[in-house]
Amino acid sequence: MAEQDTKLSKTVIVSLVFIGLLAVSAAVVLLWPRGSDTDAVPPETTASQSTTAQDAEELAGIEPSVCGLTPDPDMTVDTPPDQVEAVTVGLVKVPGSDTFGPADQNHDVPTCWQYSQAGAVSAAYTFAAVATDTARLTEGHLIEHLAEGPGRDQMLETLQDAQENDPESLGTTSAPIKPVGYRLLEFADDQARVDVLVDHLETPGNFAAMAVQLVWQDGDWKLDVTETGENYSDMRRVPDPAEFILWEIDE
What we know:
By secondary structure, this protein is of the alpha+beta class. The chain contains six helices and ten strands, in the order αααββββαααββββββ. The protein has one domain.
């Protein structure tokens, strides 16, 4: 078993180069022994209070949704939205709706969410779920989901170089995970930070999480990454998911 885990770890590490979002590392994190250093949690923050009416008037500075979804800055996700539908992302289904998105699909990946807390959480779920089918969805993920900047440019350049010169290096490894919960850590102006809880599909009840930074750009939620294309936080084990709000599509 140890030898198998080592091989999986090496393969997943290679795949990380081409996913941008580090959710694929969940396949490794969830196989690590309990009590490892990955049990550490990010600094505790709380979501900002609901926008006041005066603040809402100032939302004229927020770029309108690219697909016409009406913004709802007063919406909260202290409890998950009730009216949802299943949206297939890779090999799993995540919550979506006509209200908060996703409302479109481009390059094989869902796109276009509402400017709202629910829209931000739904986008973060989708970005994590891409890791379940990296061979098919990585390119679309990098093009459609990453915020414009040097990190996105570098990831696309690296991917293109591999496609042209060393396609075998891309591999086909995907992470057997499913987003099942969240913590909204920040929501203000044109940014959000969502801590996404994932469950390991092959060993249910084995949880991990990663906080992702989102930015409202070009009328949609995008994944904000470093200049080298990495996420700002690492994937970590979650021994007890009690602090998360559970929200998933039953399959």
